[in-house]
């Protein structure tokens, strides 16, 4: 049996929007949306002032503007966000090399054996948050616990600019008290299914065994069964295996012709192939995503059996998938292409998880 882990989940507060407000004083204290400035655009991020009106990421800009008439749209500056993210990662590295980034603005840290021998995960989280604010003038929230599942839940508990510590003996109780819609991995469809089954809170999951969970939720059911009991043995993985590489286009005007959509598919395919090349990856599966002008969405996929090693193969498969939707039933507003089932020598390897024992000074 291994020692229990000390895990911190750090999550920047409204990251993209906060960077914009930091760099442009005129935006401070005002409702701001990053991206989505066109009538057909989508919000990439929203400030807390905008969130009060119900504006959130992935929302169509027309909806966001209707909810918040004073909403200010600003173009995303991803080079700036990456630069700040790099600063934050350097702060993490002062304490541990076991860092698992989830995106530019959040990461898991395993500080069980921290570089500075501070010994307390709570003290480390406080130091990290203070240093982030000092260096970047931005705030971060943190969750501190004994596994990744609970640390991530905890980081959202006292947002913005907050910290939440869940000790091992309180883990199961904490999970039981939360709505299941807050669980990482529970999307709208799963939440709707749970609602139909009468599952609203974490404690509602405790009445079901592993077999029932697997029957209703597949492989995610076993994860949920353990998570509902405060158990998550996944390690923090510094090299996370990338699952897919994709790109997409939202059109200025809806498209219906086969020629237009095929040409756009090739443009998107060029982006995908460039990203695959940069990642030194090859893939087995190609996925086509189509979003119609009424926002309904379909996907089509094909796995030819061998790894796709030439760009021409990607385009050929993309055309095969496109032909399945011709003639289009409705005008198309978005086309995306993704490669999955990836393989690369640079993706890292699985780490055997340790078992945890719930007795520990945080």
Automatic annotation (TrEMBL):
Q: Where is this site: Substrate discrimination?
A: 16
Q: Provide the GO MF annotations for this entry.
A: damaged DNA binding; DNA-directed DNA polymerase activity; magnesium ion binding
Species for this entry = Sphingorhabdus lutea
Cofactor dependence is on:
Mg(2+)
Family membership, please give it.
Answer: Belongs to the DNA polymerase type-Y family.
How is the cofactor bound, in the record's words? Answer: Binds 2 magnesium ions per subunit.
Catalytic activity annotated for this protein? Answer: DNA(n) + a 2'-deoxyribonucleoside 5'-triphosphate = DNA(n+1) + diphosphate
Domain UmuC stretches: 7-187
Q: What does this protein do?
A: Poorly processive, error-prone DNA polymerase involved in untargeted mutagenesis. Copies undamaged DNA at stalled replication forks, which arise in vivo from mismatched or misaligned primer ends. These misaligned primers can be extended by PolIV. Exhibits no 3'-5' exonuclease (proofreading) activity. May be involved in translesional synthesis, in conjunction with the beta clamp from PolIII.
- Assembly and oligomerization: Monomer.
- Does this entry carry the keyword rRNA-binding? no
Single biological process term from Gene Ontology: error-prone translesion synthesis
Q: Which residues form the active site?
A: 106
The protein's superkingdom reads Bacteria
Q: For binding Mg(2+), which residues are annotated in this chain's numbering? A: 11, 105
Gene label: dinB
Q: Which PROSITE patterns match?
A: UMUC
Read off the Pfam families from this record: IMS (PF00817), IMS_C (PF11799), IMS_HHH (PF11798)
* Entry keyword 4Fe-4S: no
Keywords recorded for this protein, A-Z: Cytoplasm, DNA damage, DNA repair, DNA replication, DNA-binding, DNA-directed DNA polymerase, Magnesium, Metal-binding, Mutator protein, Nucleotidyltransferase, Transferase
User: What are the leading ranks of the lineage?
Assistant: Bacteria, Pseudomonadati, Pseudomonadota, Alphaproteobacteria, Sphingomonadales
Q: Where in the cell is it found?
A: Cytoplasm
Entry protein name: DNA polymerase IV
The record's annotation in NCBIfam families points to:
PRK02406.1, PRK14133.1
Enzyme Commission number: 2.7.7.7
Into which EC class is this enzyme placed? transferase
Q: Name one GO cellular component term.
A: cytosol
């Amino acid at each position: 049996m291994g020692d229990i882990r000390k895990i911190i989940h750090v999550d920047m507060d409204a990251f993209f929007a906060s960077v914009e407000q930091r760099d442009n004083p005129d935006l401070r204290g005002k409702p701001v949306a990053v991206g989505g400035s066109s009538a057909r655009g989508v919000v990439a991020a929203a400030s807390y002032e905008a969130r009060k009106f119900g504006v959130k990421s992935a929302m169509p800009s027309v909806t966001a503007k209707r909810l918040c008439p004073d909403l200010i749209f600003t173009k995303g500056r991803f080079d700036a966000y990456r630069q700040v993210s790099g600063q934050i990662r350097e702060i993490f590295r002062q304490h541990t090399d076991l860092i698992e980034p989830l995106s530019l603005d959040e990461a898991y840290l395993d500080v069980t054996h921290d570089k500075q021998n501070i010994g307390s995960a709570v003290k480390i989280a406080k130091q990290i948050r203070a240093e982030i604010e000092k260096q970047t003038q931005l705030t971060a929230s943190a969750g501190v616990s004994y596994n990744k599942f609970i640390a991530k839940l905890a980081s959202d508990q006292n947002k913005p600019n907050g910290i939440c510590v869940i000790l091992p003996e309180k883990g199961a109780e904490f999970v039981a008290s939360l709505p299941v819609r807050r669980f990482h991995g529970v999307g709208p469809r799963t939440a709707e299914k749970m609602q139909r089954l009468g599952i609203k809170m974490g404690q509602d999951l405790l009445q079901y065994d592993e077999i029932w969970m697997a029957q209703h939720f597949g492989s995610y059911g076993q994860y949920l069964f353990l998570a509902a009991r405060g158990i998550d043995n996944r390690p923090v993985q510094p090299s996370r295996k990338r699952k897919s590489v994709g790109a997409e286009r939202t059109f200025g005007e809806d498209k219906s012709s086969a020629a237009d959509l095929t040409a756009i598919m090739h443009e998107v395919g060029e982006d995908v192939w460039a990203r695959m090349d940069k990642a030194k990856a090859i893939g087995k599966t190609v996925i086509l995503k189509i979003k119609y002008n009424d926002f309904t969405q379909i996907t089509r996929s094909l796995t030819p059996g061998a790894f796709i090693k030439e760009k021409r193969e990607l385009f050929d498969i993309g055309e095969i998938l496109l032909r399945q939707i011709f003639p289009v039933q409705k005008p198309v507003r978005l086309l995306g292409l993704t490669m999955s089932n990836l393989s690369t020598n640079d993706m890292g390897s699985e780490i055997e998880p340790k078992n945890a024992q719930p007795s520990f000074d945080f």
